[in-house]
UniProtKB/TrEMBL annotation:
Residues 206-241 form the UVR domain. Belongs to the UvrC family. SMART domains: GIYc. This is UvrABC system protein C.
Length: 603
Protein backbone atom coordinates (compact mmCIF):
# COMPACT_ATOMS: atom_id res chain seq x y z
CA UNK A 1 0.00 0.00 0.00
CA UNK A 2 1.23 3.54 -0.76
CA UNK A 3 1.49 5.30 2.57
CA UNK A 4 1.92 8.84 1.26
CA UNK A 5 1.02 10.79 -1.81
CA UNK A 6 3.00 13.78 -2.96
CA UNK A 7 1.36 17.03 -1.90
CA UNK A 8 -1.47 15.48 0.10
CA UNK A 9 -2.47 13.49 3.12
CA UNK A 10 -1.33 9.91 3.56
CA UNK A 11 -3.49 7.12 2.18
CA UNK A 12 -3.78 5.52 5.62
CA UNK A 13 -5.07 8.79 7.05
CA UNK A 14 -7.76 8.97 4.38
CA UNK A 15 -8.76 5.33 4.99
CA UNK A 16 -8.95 5.90 8.78
CA UNK A 17 -11.26 8.88 8.27
CA UNK A 18 -13.53 6.82 6.00
CA UNK A 19 -13.57 3.90 8.44
CA UNK A 20 -14.69 6.23 11.24
CA UNK A 21 -17.86 7.25 9.42
CA UNK A 22 -18.95 3.90 7.96
CA UNK A 23 -22.72 3.29 8.36
CA UNK A 24 -24.18 0.34 10.30
CA UNK A 25 -26.39 -0.61 7.32
CA UNK A 26 -26.27 -3.33 4.66
CA UNK A 27 -24.52 -2.66 1.38
CA UNK A 28 -21.58 -3.33 -0.91
CA UNK A 29 -17.99 -2.12 -0.71
CA UNK A 30 -15.40 -1.71 -3.48
CA UNK A 31 -11.71 -1.95 -2.63
CA UNK A 32 -9.38 -0.02 -4.96
CA UNK A 33 -5.65 -0.08 -5.62
CA UNK A 34 -3.31 2.91 -5.95
CA UNK A 35 -4.42 3.43 -9.56
CA UNK A 36 -8.11 3.59 -8.64
CA UNK A 37 -8.82 0.15 -10.12
CA UNK A 38 -11.43 -1.96 -8.32
CA UNK A 39 -9.64 -5.07 -7.05
CA UNK A 40 -12.32 -6.56 -4.78
CA UNK A 41 -16.08 -6.28 -4.32
CA UNK A 42 -17.89 -7.56 -1.24
CA UNK A 43 -21.24 -7.27 0.50
CA UNK A 44 -22.08 -6.87 4.17
CA UNK A 45 -25.01 -7.07 6.51
CA UNK A 46 -23.37 -4.25 8.46
CA UNK A 47 -20.89 -2.23 6.39
CA UNK A 48 -19.18 -0.71 9.42
CA UNK A 49 -18.22 -4.06 10.92
CA UNK A 50 -17.22 -5.80 7.71
CA UNK A 51 -15.04 -3.12 6.13
CA UNK A 52 -13.26 -2.31 9.42
CA UNK A 53 -12.37 -5.98 9.85
CA UNK A 54 -9.98 -5.80 6.89
CA UNK A 55 -7.86 -3.14 8.62
CA UNK A 56 -7.73 -4.66 12.10
CA UNK A 57 -6.61 -7.95 13.62
CA UNK A 58 -4.46 -10.60 11.96
CA UNK A 59 -5.09 -12.17 8.56
CA UNK A 60 -3.73 -15.09 6.57
CA UNK A 61 -1.15 -14.37 3.86
CA UNK A 62 -3.77 -14.32 1.11
CA UNK A 63 -5.88 -11.64 2.81
CA UNK A 64 -2.75 -9.70 3.74
CA UNK A 65 -1.95 -9.46 0.02
CA UNK A 66 -5.42 -8.06 -0.66
CA UNK A 67 -5.15 -5.52 2.16
CA UNK A 68 -1.62 -4.53 1.06
CA UNK A 69 -3.05 -3.57 -2.34
CA UNK A 70 -5.91 -1.44 -0.95
CA UNK A 71 -5.28 2.28 -1.35
CA UNK A 72 -8.92 3.42 -1.13
CA UNK A 73 -12.46 2.09 -0.88
CA UNK A 74 -16.02 3.07 -1.66
CA UNK A 75 -19.33 1.70 -0.44
CA UNK A 76 -22.95 1.66 -1.57
CA UNK A 77 -25.77 1.40 0.98
CA UNK A 78 -28.69 -0.89 0.16
CA UNK A 79 -32.05 -1.31 1.84
CA UNK A 80 -31.59 -5.05 2.55
CA UNK A 81 -29.16 -7.94 2.46
CA UNK A 82 -30.97 -9.26 -0.60
CA UNK A 83 -30.37 -6.02 -2.51
CA UNK A 84 -26.72 -6.16 -1.45
CA UNK A 85 -26.45 -9.67 -2.90
CA UNK A 86 -27.91 -8.55 -6.25
CA UNK A 87 -25.71 -5.45 -6.37
CA UNK A 88 -22.59 -7.41 -5.46
CA UNK A 89 -23.09 -9.82 -8.37
CA UNK A 90 -23.63 -6.94 -10.81
CA UNK A 91 -20.54 -5.09 -9.57
CA UNK A 92 -18.37 -8.21 -9.87
CA UNK A 93 -19.61 -8.72 -13.40
CA UNK A 94 -18.93 -5.06 -14.24
CA UNK A 95 -15.43 -4.71 -12.79
CA UNK A 96 -14.13 -8.32 -12.86
CA UNK A 97 -11.91 -7.60 -9.81
CA UNK A 98 -8.69 -9.62 -9.58
CA UNK A 99 -9.42 -10.85 -6.04
CA UNK A 100 -12.99 -11.99 -6.83
CA UNK A 101 -11.93 -15.22 -8.47
CA UNK A 102 -15.05 -17.34 -8.17
CA UNK A 103 -16.36 -16.18 -11.56
CA UNK A 104 -13.15 -17.04 -13.39
CA UNK A 105 -14.16 -20.69 -13.66
CA UNK A 106 -15.61 -20.99 -17.17
CA UNK A 107 -16.39 -24.69 -16.88
CA UNK A 108 -19.37 -25.78 -19.01
CA UNK A 109 -21.44 -28.93 -19.27
CA UNK A 110 -23.09 -30.64 -22.24
CA UNK A 111 -26.81 -30.20 -22.83
CA UNK A 112 -29.30 -31.18 -25.50
CA UNK A 113 -31.57 -28.45 -26.79
CA UNK A 114 -34.80 -28.44 -28.79
CA UNK A 115 -35.00 -25.10 -30.56
CA UNK A 116 -38.14 -22.94 -30.49
CA UNK A 117 -38.13 -22.50 -34.29
CA UNK A 118 -41.12 -23.17 -36.53
CA UNK A 119 -39.28 -26.25 -37.77
CA UNK A 120 -37.44 -27.26 -34.55
CA UNK A 121 -34.01 -28.89 -34.35
CA UNK A 122 -32.31 -31.05 -31.74
CA UNK A 123 -28.87 -29.63 -30.93
CA UNK A 124 -25.85 -30.45 -28.76
CA UNK A 125 -24.64 -27.38 -26.86
CA UNK A 126 -22.61 -26.18 -23.90
CA UNK A 127 -24.24 -22.74 -23.79
CA UNK A 128 -27.59 -22.23 -22.09
CA UNK A 129 -29.35 -19.14 -23.43
CA UNK A 130 -32.67 -17.49 -22.72
CA UNK A 131 -34.03 -18.21 -26.19
CA UNK A 132 -37.26 -20.17 -25.41
CA UNK A 133 -35.55 -23.44 -26.35
CA UNK A 134 -35.99 -26.59 -24.25
CA UNK A 135 -32.74 -27.67 -22.55
CA UNK A 136 -31.96 -31.09 -21.08
CA UNK A 137 -28.96 -31.91 -18.94
CA UNK A 138 -26.32 -31.63 -17.79
CA UNK A 139 -25.16 -34.97 -19.16
CA UNK A 140 -22.57 -37.21 -17.57
CA UNK A 141 -20.07 -36.32 -20.31
CA UNK A 142 -19.89 -35.03 -23.87
CA UNK A 143 -19.85 -38.54 -25.35
CA UNK A 144 -23.08 -39.46 -23.54
CA UNK A 145 -24.82 -36.33 -24.82
CA UNK A 146 -23.63 -36.85 -28.39
CA UNK A 147 -24.63 -40.50 -28.40
CA UNK A 148 -28.05 -39.60 -27.02
CA UNK A 149 -28.47 -37.06 -29.82
CA UNK A 150 -27.48 -39.64 -32.44
CA UNK A 151 -30.03 -42.04 -31.02
CA UNK A 152 -32.81 -39.43 -30.97
CA UNK A 153 -31.89 -38.32 -34.50
CA UNK A 154 -32.56 -41.88 -35.66
CA UNK A 155 -35.84 -42.14 -33.77
CA UNK A 156 -37.31 -38.67 -34.36
CA UNK A 157 -36.47 -37.06 -37.74
CA UNK A 158 -36.51 -33.34 -36.90
CA UNK A 159 -34.89 -30.76 -39.19
CA UNK A 160 -31.06 -30.96 -39.29
CA UNK A 161 -29.89 -28.03 -41.45
CA UNK A 162 -29.02 -24.64 -39.90
CA UNK A 163 -30.64 -22.86 -42.84
CA UNK A 164 -33.34 -24.21 -45.09
CA UNK A 165 -31.76 -25.52 -48.34
CA UNK A 166 -33.50 -25.63 -51.72
CA UNK A 167 -33.59 -29.41 -51.87
CA UNK A 168 -33.55 -32.37 -49.52
CA UNK A 169 -30.18 -33.47 -48.16
CA UNK A 170 -28.61 -36.76 -47.09
CA UNK A 171 -30.47 -36.79 -43.76
CA UNK A 172 -33.77 -37.03 -45.66
CA UNK A 173 -32.54 -39.99 -47.70
CA UNK A 174 -31.38 -41.91 -44.60
CA UNK A 175 -34.65 -41.25 -42.77
CA UNK A 176 -33.36 -38.73 -40.19
CA UNK A 177 -35.26 -35.69 -41.52
CA UNK A 178 -38.75 -35.25 -42.96
CA UNK A 179 -37.50 -32.62 -45.44
CA UNK A 180 -39.36 -29.46 -44.35
CA UNK A 181 -37.27 -27.57 -46.92
CA UNK A 182 -39.35 -29.22 -49.68
CA UNK A 183 -42.37 -30.81 -48.02
CA UNK A 184 -45.03 -29.28 -45.80
CA UNK A 185 -44.46 -30.55 -42.25
CA UNK A 186 -47.34 -29.58 -39.97
CA UNK A 187 -47.10 -28.17 -36.47
CA UNK A 188 -48.83 -31.30 -35.23
CA UNK A 189 -46.12 -33.55 -36.73
CA UNK A 190 -43.35 -31.49 -35.16
CA UNK A 191 -45.17 -31.28 -31.83
CA UNK A 192 -45.57 -35.05 -31.71
CA UNK A 193 -41.83 -35.60 -32.26
CA UNK A 194 -40.87 -32.88 -29.77
CA UNK A 195 -43.20 -34.34 -27.15
CA UNK A 196 -41.67 -37.79 -27.69
CA UNK A 197 -38.14 -36.42 -27.29
CA UNK A 198 -39.12 -34.51 -24.15
CA UNK A 199 -40.73 -37.65 -22.74
CA UNK A 200 -37.64 -39.70 -23.56
CA UNK A 201 -35.24 -37.20 -21.95
CA UNK A 202 -37.48 -36.84 -18.90
CA UNK A 203 -37.26 -40.53 -18.08
CA UNK A 204 -39.54 -42.22 -20.62
CA UNK A 205 -36.72 -44.11 -22.29
CA UNK A 206 -37.69 -47.56 -20.82
CA UNK A 207 -40.85 -47.53 -22.95
CA UNK A 208 -38.83 -46.66 -26.06
CA UNK A 209 -36.34 -49.41 -25.22
CA UNK A 210 -39.14 -51.94 -24.84
CA UNK A 211 -40.62 -50.96 -28.21
CA UNK A 212 -37.21 -51.22 -29.90
CA UNK A 213 -36.68 -54.65 -28.35
CA UNK A 214 -39.98 -55.88 -29.85
CA UNK A 215 -38.99 -54.54 -33.26
CA UNK A 216 -35.53 -56.15 -32.99
CA UNK A 217 -37.02 -59.58 -32.18
CA UNK A 218 -39.52 -59.26 -35.03
CA UNK A 219 -36.75 -58.33 -37.49
CA UNK A 220 -34.68 -61.28 -36.31
CA UNK A 221 -37.59 -63.69 -36.82
CA UNK A 222 -38.01 -62.31 -40.34
CA UNK A 223 -34.27 -62.97 -40.92
CA UNK A 224 -33.69 -59.24 -41.44
CA UNK A 225 -30.47 -59.38 -39.46
CA UNK A 226 -29.11 -56.04 -40.67
CA UNK A 227 -32.20 -54.27 -39.32
CA UNK A 228 -32.06 -56.33 -36.12
CA UNK A 229 -28.41 -55.32 -35.60
CA UNK A 230 -29.28 -51.65 -36.12
CA UNK A 231 -32.06 -51.89 -33.52
CA UNK A 232 -29.76 -53.75 -31.14
CA UNK A 233 -27.18 -50.96 -31.44
CA UNK A 234 -29.87 -48.40 -30.63
CA UNK A 235 -30.87 -50.37 -27.53
CA UNK A 236 -27.23 -50.57 -26.43
CA UNK A 237 -26.95 -46.82 -26.89
CA UNK A 238 -29.93 -46.32 -24.62
CA UNK A 239 -28.36 -48.59 -22.00
CA UNK A 240 -25.01 -46.80 -22.24
CA UNK A 241 -26.44 -43.30 -22.13
CA UNK A 242 -29.23 -43.77 -19.62
CA UNK A 243 -27.10 -45.94 -17.34
CA UNK A 244 -28.41 -46.47 -13.83
CA UNK A 245 -26.41 -44.86 -11.09
CA UNK A 246 -25.82 -46.22 -7.62
CA UNK A 247 -27.32 -43.17 -5.96
CA UNK A 248 -31.07 -42.88 -6.44
CA UNK A 249 -33.81 -40.71 -4.98
CA UNK A 250 -37.39 -41.72 -4.34
CA UNK A 251 -38.94 -39.01 -6.52
CA UNK A 252 -37.98 -38.16 -10.10
CA UNK A 253 -37.84 -34.35 -9.74
CA UNK A 254 -34.64 -32.60 -10.89
CA UNK A 255 -32.58 -31.31 -7.96
CA UNK A 256 -29.26 -29.58 -7.33
CA UNK A 257 -27.67 -30.35 -3.96
CA UNK A 258 -25.09 -27.95 -2.52
CA UNK A 259 -22.47 -28.56 0.12
CA UNK A 260 -19.54 -26.35 1.11
CA UNK A 261 -16.54 -26.28 3.39
CA UNK A 262 -14.01 -23.55 4.17
CA UNK A 263 -10.65 -23.35 5.87
CA UNK A 264 -7.57 -21.10 5.81
CA UNK A 265 -9.29 -18.51 3.63
CA UNK A 266 -10.35 -21.00 0.94
CA UNK A 267 -13.78 -22.37 0.11
CA UNK A 268 -14.87 -25.44 -1.80
CA UNK A 269 -18.43 -25.78 -3.11
CA UNK A 270 -19.71 -29.09 -4.42
CA UNK A 271 -22.93 -29.36 -6.42
CA UNK A 272 -24.63 -32.68 -7.11
CA UNK A 273 -26.89 -32.68 -10.19
CA UNK A 274 -29.77 -35.13 -9.68
CA UNK A 275 -31.86 -35.80 -12.79
CA UNK A 276 -34.77 -38.25 -13.01
CA UNK A 277 -33.84 -39.48 -9.56
CA UNK A 278 -30.19 -40.24 -10.42
CA UNK A 279 -26.98 -38.47 -9.48
CA UNK A 280 -25.51 -37.87 -12.95
CA UNK A 281 -22.78 -35.26 -12.44
CA UNK A 282 -21.14 -32.96 -9.94
CA UNK A 283 -19.51 -29.54 -10.08
CA UNK A 284 -16.47 -28.74 -7.93
CA UNK A 285 -15.35 -25.14 -7.39
CA UNK A 286 -12.46 -24.03 -5.18
CA UNK A 287 -11.60 -20.37 -4.62
CA UNK A 288 -10.13 -18.00 -2.03
CA UNK A 289 -12.70 -15.82 -0.23
CA UNK A 290 -12.29 -12.65 1.78
CA UNK A 291 -15.63 -12.12 3.52
CA UNK A 292 -17.99 -14.22 5.65
CA UNK A 293 -18.15 -17.83 4.49
CA UNK A 294 -21.94 -18.27 4.57
CA UNK A 295 -22.48 -15.00 2.68
CA UNK A 296 -19.84 -15.70 0.05
CA UNK A 297 -21.42 -19.12 -0.41
CA UNK A 298 -24.75 -17.42 -1.23
CA UNK A 299 -22.96 -15.13 -3.70
CA UNK A 300 -21.51 -18.20 -5.38
CA UNK A 301 -24.96 -19.78 -5.78
CA UNK A 302 -26.34 -16.58 -7.31
CA UNK A 303 -23.45 -16.43 -9.77
CA UNK A 304 -23.76 -20.16 -10.49
CA UNK A 305 -27.27 -19.78 -11.89
CA UNK A 306 -27.60 -16.16 -12.98
CA UNK A 307 -24.15 -15.57 -14.48
CA UNK A 308 -22.87 -19.04 -15.34
CA UNK A 309 -26.31 -19.85 -16.80
CA UNK A 310 -26.76 -23.28 -15.25
CA UNK A 311 -30.31 -24.48 -15.73
CA UNK A 312 -32.48 -24.12 -12.65
CA UNK A 313 -33.85 -27.46 -11.40
CA UNK A 314 -37.21 -27.95 -9.72
CA UNK A 315 -35.53 -27.84 -6.32
CA UNK A 316 -32.31 -26.50 -4.79
CA UNK A 317 -31.13 -28.24 -1.62
CA UNK A 318 -28.86 -26.27 0.72
CA UNK A 319 -27.13 -26.76 4.09
CA UNK A 320 -29.23 -25.55 7.02
CA UNK A 321 -26.66 -22.96 8.20
CA UNK A 322 -27.20 -20.50 5.29
CA UNK A 323 -29.98 -18.05 4.39
CA UNK A 324 -32.17 -20.24 2.19
CA UNK A 325 -34.93 -17.64 2.02
CA UNK A 326 -32.59 -15.22 0.25
CA UNK A 327 -31.76 -17.83 -2.41
CA UNK A 328 -35.45 -18.67 -2.78
CA UNK A 329 -36.21 -15.00 -3.40
CA UNK A 330 -33.27 -14.63 -5.77
CA UNK A 331 -33.90 -17.72 -7.91
CA UNK A 332 -37.69 -18.05 -7.55
CA UNK A 333 -37.36 -21.79 -7.06
CA UNK A 334 -38.17 -24.31 -4.33
CA UNK A 335 -35.40 -24.32 -1.70
CA UNK A 336 -34.99 -27.07 0.90
CA UNK A 337 -32.68 -27.19 3.91
CA UNK A 338 -33.21 -30.72 5.24
CA UNK A 339 -32.24 -31.82 8.73
CA UNK A 340 -32.89 -35.54 8.32
CA UNK A 341 -33.40 -38.44 5.88
CA UNK A 342 -32.15 -38.82 2.35
CA UNK A 343 -31.89 -35.16 1.31
CA UNK A 344 -29.82 -34.46 4.41
CA UNK A 345 -27.55 -37.38 3.48
CA UNK A 346 -26.97 -35.82 0.06
CA UNK A 347 -26.04 -32.47 1.64
CA UNK A 348 -23.70 -34.20 4.10
CA UNK A 349 -22.06 -36.14 1.27
CA UNK A 350 -21.54 -32.97 -0.81
CA UNK A 351 -20.07 -31.25 2.26
CA UNK A 352 -17.79 -34.21 2.96
CA UNK A 353 -16.56 -34.14 -0.63
CA UNK A 354 -15.90 -30.39 -0.31
CA UNK A 355 -13.91 -30.96 2.87
CA UNK A 356 -11.80 -33.64 1.21
CA UNK A 357 -11.21 -31.51 -1.89
CA UNK A 358 -9.86 -28.68 0.30
CA UNK A 359 -7.42 -31.04 2.00
CA UNK A 360 -6.05 -32.03 -1.39
CA UNK A 361 -6.00 -28.37 -2.47
CA UNK A 362 -3.98 -27.31 0.58
CA UNK A 363 -1.40 -30.00 -0.10
CA UNK A 364 -1.05 -28.73 -3.68
CA UNK A 365 -1.08 -25.07 -2.60
CA UNK A 366 1.72 -25.65 -0.14
CA UNK A 367 3.81 -27.25 -2.86
CA UNK A 368 2.87 -24.61 -5.44
CA UNK A 369 3.41 -21.64 -3.11
CA UNK A 370 6.97 -22.79 -2.45
CA UNK A 371 7.53 -22.24 -6.20
CA UNK A 372 5.46 -19.06 -6.54
CA UNK A 373 4.34 -16.77 -3.70
CA UNK A 374 7.04 -17.84 -1.22
CA UNK A 375 9.65 -17.68 -3.96
CA UNK A 376 8.54 -14.11 -4.75
CA UNK A 377 8.67 -13.10 -1.10
CA UNK A 378 12.08 -14.70 -0.60
CA UNK A 379 13.33 -12.98 -3.76
CA UNK A 380 12.28 -9.64 -2.29
CA UNK A 381 14.24 -10.39 0.90
CA UNK A 382 17.30 -11.45 -1.11
CA UNK A 383 17.22 -8.21 -3.12
CA UNK A 384 16.25 -6.04 -0.12
CA UNK A 385 13.10 -4.75 -1.84
CA UNK A 386 9.37 -5.24 -1.14
CA UNK A 387 8.08 -8.59 -2.40
CA UNK A 388 7.86 -8.22 -6.22
CA UNK A 389 4.40 -9.71 -6.76
CA UNK A 390 4.41 -8.24 -10.28
CA UNK A 391 7.56 -8.77 -12.35
CA UNK A 392 7.96 -7.57 -15.92
CA UNK A 393 10.80 -9.03 -18.02
CA UNK A 394 12.24 -7.89 -21.38
CA UNK A 395 14.33 -9.60 -24.04
CA UNK A 396 15.57 -8.33 -27.42
CA UNK A 397 15.87 -10.64 -30.40
CA UNK A 398 17.60 -10.19 -33.76
CA UNK A 399 19.88 -12.20 -36.01
CA UNK A 400 22.72 -10.18 -37.54
CA UNK A 401 20.65 -7.07 -37.01
CA UNK A 402 17.69 -8.25 -39.11
CA UNK A 403 14.07 -7.85 -38.02
CA UNK A 404 14.90 -6.51 -34.53
CA UNK A 405 12.10 -7.05 -32.03
CA UNK A 406 11.60 -7.08 -28.29
CA UNK A 407 9.20 -8.92 -26.05
CA UNK A 408 7.87 -8.37 -22.54
CA UNK A 409 6.28 -10.91 -20.24
CA UNK A 410 4.55 -10.52 -16.87
CA UNK A 411 4.77 -12.80 -13.84
CA UNK A 412 2.17 -12.15 -11.12
CA UNK A 413 2.46 -13.98 -7.79
CA UNK A 414 5.22 -16.10 -9.33
CA UNK A 415 3.11 -17.26 -12.29
CA UNK A 416 3.01 -16.09 -15.93
CA UNK A 417 0.07 -13.84 -16.83
CA UNK A 418 -0.04 -14.33 -20.60
CA UNK A 419 -2.84 -11.82 -21.10
CA UNK A 420 -0.33 -9.12 -20.13
CA UNK A 421 2.43 -10.19 -22.54
CA UNK A 422 3.45 -7.58 -25.14
CA UNK A 423 5.42 -7.61 -28.43
CA UNK A 424 7.44 -4.69 -29.82
CA UNK A 425 8.88 -4.06 -33.27
CA UNK A 426 11.92 -1.82 -32.92
CA UNK A 427 11.15 1.44 -34.76
CA UNK A 428 13.92 3.96 -34.02
CA UNK A 429 17.09 1.86 -34.03
CA UNK A 430 19.13 0.91 -37.10
CA UNK A 431 21.34 -2.13 -36.90
CA UNK A 432 22.07 -4.47 -33.96
CA UNK A 433 22.14 -2.01 -31.03
CA UNK A 434 20.78 -3.82 -27.95
CA UNK A 435 21.21 -0.83 -25.65
CA UNK A 436 19.29 1.58 -27.87
CA UNK A 437 16.62 -1.08 -28.50
CA UNK A 438 16.21 -1.61 -24.76
CA UNK A 439 15.84 2.14 -24.22
CA UNK A 440 13.16 2.39 -26.91
CA UNK A 441 11.08 -0.49 -25.56
CA UNK A 442 11.31 0.59 -21.90
CA UNK A 443 10.40 4.13 -22.92
CA UNK A 444 7.37 2.96 -24.92
CA UNK A 445 6.19 0.54 -22.24
CA UNK A 446 6.27 2.83 -19.22
CA UNK A 447 5.30 6.04 -20.99
CA UNK A 448 2.11 4.27 -21.95
CA UNK A 449 1.49 2.98 -18.43
CA UNK A 450 1.93 6.52 -17.08
CA UNK A 451 -0.41 7.89 -19.73
CA UNK A 452 -3.09 5.24 -19.08
CA UNK A 453 -2.58 5.20 -15.28
CA UNK A 454 -1.87 1.48 -15.48
CA UNK A 455 -0.22 -0.88 -13.02
CA UNK A 456 3.53 -0.52 -12.54
CA UNK A 457 5.70 -3.57 -11.83
CA UNK A 458 7.46 -4.15 -8.53
CA UNK A 459 10.57 -5.38 -10.34
CA UNK A 460 11.86 -5.19 -13.92
CA UNK A 461 14.08 -7.99 -15.23
CA UNK A 462 16.29 -7.45 -18.28
CA UNK A 463 17.74 -10.38 -20.18
CA UNK A 464 21.28 -9.03 -20.29
CA UNK A 465 24.12 -7.51 -18.33
CA UNK A 466 25.33 -4.15 -17.07
CA UNK A 467 24.83 -2.28 -20.34
CA UNK A 468 21.17 -3.27 -20.71
CA UNK A 469 20.50 -2.50 -17.03
CA UNK A 470 22.05 0.95 -17.38
CA UNK A 471 20.01 1.62 -20.53
CA UNK A 472 16.74 0.73 -18.79
CA UNK A 473 17.60 2.71 -15.64
CA UNK A 474 18.53 5.77 -17.68
CA UNK A 475 15.09 5.91 -19.33
CA UNK A 476 13.16 5.11 -16.16
CA UNK A 477 14.90 7.57 -13.85
CA UNK A 478 16.11 10.39 -16.08
CA UNK A 479 13.25 10.52 -18.61
CA UNK A 480 10.20 9.17 -16.79
CA UNK A 481 11.08 9.92 -13.16
CA UNK A 482 10.29 6.33 -12.16
CA UNK A 483 12.31 4.47 -9.56
CA UNK A 484 11.59 0.79 -10.08
CA UNK A 485 14.20 -1.87 -9.20
CA UNK A 486 15.90 -3.23 -12.33
CA UNK A 487 17.81 -6.49 -12.48
CA UNK A 488 19.75 -8.17 -15.28
CA UNK A 489 19.95 -11.91 -15.82
CA UNK A 490 23.22 -13.21 -17.22
CA UNK A 491 23.78 -16.68 -18.69
CA UNK A 492 26.72 -19.06 -18.52
CA UNK A 493 28.57 -20.67 -21.45
CA UNK A 494 25.84 -23.32 -21.68
CA UNK A 495 23.19 -20.58 -22.06
CA UNK A 496 21.69 -21.27 -18.62
CA UNK A 497 20.69 -18.67 -16.05
CA UNK A 498 23.79 -18.08 -13.94
CA UNK A 499 23.45 -14.85 -11.97
CA UNK A 500 21.35 -11.77 -11.25
CA UNK A 501 22.88 -8.29 -11.30
CA UNK A 502 21.30 -5.30 -9.57
CA UNK A 503 22.17 -1.85 -8.28
CA UNK A 504 23.95 1.24 -9.59
CA UNK A 505 26.53 0.22 -10.54
CA UNK A 506 25.16 -3.34 -10.97
CA UNK A 507 26.68 -6.04 -8.77
CA UNK A 508 26.10 -9.78 -8.58
CA UNK A 509 23.43 -10.77 -6.04
CA UNK A 510 24.45 -13.83 -4.09
CA UNK A 511 21.74 -16.50 -4.44
CA UNK A 512 21.64 -20.22 -3.81
CA UNK A 513 21.42 -22.02 -7.15
CA UNK A 514 19.00 -24.62 -5.75
CA UNK A 515 16.61 -22.12 -4.14
CA UNK A 516 13.03 -21.63 -5.35
CA UNK A 517 13.68 -17.92 -5.94
CA UNK A 518 16.54 -18.80 -8.29
CA UNK A 519 14.32 -21.32 -10.09
CA UNK A 520 11.71 -18.56 -10.44
CA UNK A 521 14.28 -16.34 -12.18
CA UNK A 522 15.17 -19.23 -14.47
CA UNK A 523 11.51 -19.68 -15.45
CA UNK A 524 11.19 -15.96 -16.13
CA UNK A 525 14.31 -15.86 -18.29
CA UNK A 526 13.36 -18.99 -20.24
CA UNK A 527 9.84 -17.72 -20.84
CA UNK A 528 10.79 -14.23 -22.02
CA UNK A 529 13.45 -15.71 -24.30
CA UNK A 530 10.95 -18.18 -25.78
CA UNK A 531 8.40 -15.44 -26.33
CA UNK A 532 10.92 -13.10 -27.97
CA UNK A 533 12.36 -15.79 -30.26
CA UNK A 534 8.92 -16.94 -31.44
CA UNK A 535 7.96 -13.34 -32.22
CA UNK A 536 11.22 -12.73 -34.06
CA UNK A 537 10.74 -15.82 -36.23
CA UNK A 538 7.22 -14.71 -37.03
CA UNK A 539 8.38 -11.23 -38.11
CA UNK A 540 11.44 -12.57 -39.98
CA UNK A 541 9.45 -15.21 -41.90
CA UNK A 542 6.83 -12.65 -42.83
CA UNK A 543 9.53 -10.30 -44.09
CA UNK A 544 11.24 -13.04 -46.10
CA UNK A 545 7.89 -14.01 -47.59
CA UNK A 546 7.19 -10.44 -48.69
CA UNK A 547 10.71 -9.83 -50.05
CA UNK A 548 10.52 -12.97 -52.19
CA UNK A 549 7.41 -11.56 -53.86
CA UNK A 550 8.95 -8.15 -54.58
CA UNK A 551 9.19 -7.07 -58.24
CA UNK A 552 6.83 -9.79 -59.49
CA UNK A 553 4.42 -8.21 -62.03
CA UNK A 554 0.85 -8.16 -60.75
CA UNK A 555 1.78 -8.75 -57.08
CA UNK A 556 1.18 -5.72 -54.90
CA UNK A 557 0.68 -5.35 -51.14
CA UNK A 558 -2.90 -6.58 -51.31
CA UNK A 559 -1.95 -9.79 -53.10
CA UNK A 560 1.06 -10.31 -50.80
CA UNK A 561 -1.30 -10.34 -47.83
CA UNK A 562 -3.64 -12.69 -49.66
CA UNK A 563 -0.81 -15.11 -50.49
CA UNK A 564 0.54 -14.92 -46.93
CA UNK A 565 -2.88 -15.87 -45.53
CA UNK A 566 -3.34 -18.69 -48.04
CA UNK A 567 0.12 -20.32 -48.14
CA UNK A 568 1.99 -19.01 -45.07
CA UNK A 569 5.49 -19.76 -46.42
CA UNK A 570 7.61 -19.59 -49.58
CA UNK A 571 8.18 -23.35 -49.35
CA UNK A 572 4.45 -24.05 -49.68
CA UNK A 573 4.15 -21.58 -52.54
CA UNK A 574 6.95 -23.33 -54.43
CA UNK A 575 5.05 -26.60 -54.08
CA UNK A 576 1.75 -25.09 -55.27
CA UNK A 577 0.19 -25.48 -58.73
CA UNK A 578 -1.51 -22.88 -60.87
CA UNK A 579 -4.84 -24.35 -59.74
CA UNK A 580 -3.82 -23.73 -56.10
CA UNK A 581 -3.11 -20.09 -56.89
CA UNK A 582 -6.37 -19.71 -58.79
CA UNK A 583 -8.24 -21.19 -55.80
CA UNK A 584 -6.62 -18.45 -53.71
CA UNK A 585 -8.03 -15.80 -56.06
CA UNK A 586 -4.86 -15.21 -58.14
CA UNK A 587 -5.32 -14.96 -61.95
CA UNK A 588 -3.57 -17.62 -64.07
CA UNK A 589 -1.18 -15.13 -65.68
CA UNK A 590 -0.02 -13.75 -62.34
CA UNK A 591 0.25 -17.29 -60.94
CA UNK A 592 2.63 -18.23 -63.77
CA UNK A 593 4.77 -15.16 -63.06
CA UNK A 594 4.94 -16.12 -59.36
CA UNK A 595 5.92 -19.73 -60.08
CA UNK A 596 8.66 -18.68 -62.51
CA UNK A 597 10.05 -16.10 -60.06
CA UNK A 598 10.10 -18.53 -57.16
CA UNK A 599 11.89 -21.19 -59.22
CA UNK A 600 14.76 -18.71 -59.64
CA UNK A 601 14.73 -17.81 -55.92
CA UNK A 602 17.48 -19.81 -54.11
CA UNK A 603 15.97 -19.23 -50.61
Amino acid sequence: MILHRKGGRGTLDIIREKLAVLPDQPGCYLMKDQFGKVIYVGKAKVLKNRVRSYFSGSHDGKTQRLVANIADFEYIITSSEFEALLLEMNLIKKYDPKFNVMLKDDKTYPYLKITAEEQPRLLYTRKVKKDKGKYFGPFVNAYAAQETKKLLDRLYPLRKCDHMPNKVCLYYHIGQCLGPCVYDITKEQNKKMVDEIVKFLNGGFPEVREELTKKMLAASEELNFERAKELRDQIQHIDAVMQKQKMMTADMADKDVFGYHYDKGWMCVQVFFIRQGKLIERDVSLFPFYGEAAEDFLTFIGQFYLQKNHILPKEVILPHDVNGEMIKELLQVKVSQPKQRQKKEFVDLATKNAQNALKVKFALIERDEDRTIKAVENLGKQLNIPAPYRIEAFDNSNIHGTSPVSAMIVFEDGKPNKKEYRKYKIKTVTGPDDYASMKEVVRRRYSRILKENGQMPDLIIIDGGKGQIAAAQDVLENELNLFIPVGGLAKDEKHRTSQLLMGDPPVIMEMQRNSQEFYLLQRIQDEVHRFAISFHRQVRDKGMFRSSLDNIPGVGEKRKKLLLRKFGSIKKMKEATIEDFRAAGIPSGVAEEIIQALQKDPS
